[in-house]
Amino acid sequence: MEQLIEILKSIHPEIDYETCNTLIDDNIIDSFDIVTLISEINDEFDVAIPADEIIPENFNSAKALYQLIERLSDE
């Protein structure tokens, strides 16, 4: 999770990713940020996020995103 928080902070360092669960709902991260995140996650965790998993629920919080990474890692 720490690695993911570091990736997120490199995009928007002003956000408290430990508590924020409205990253998409409040337009904190946009489509460009998501593309960057997907690339960074692929590099850092060796996980490819398929297009059908790029939904707001998976990107609204660091916790949801980390759960996605864990789930995809197990597949």
Automatic annotation (TrEMBL):
Q: Which residues form the Carrier domain?
A: 1-73
PROSITE patterns referenced in this protein's UniProt entry, alphabetically? CARRIER
Name of the protein: Acyl carrier protein
One matching Pfam family = PP-binding
**What SUPFAM superfamilies does the record tag this protein with?**
ACP-like
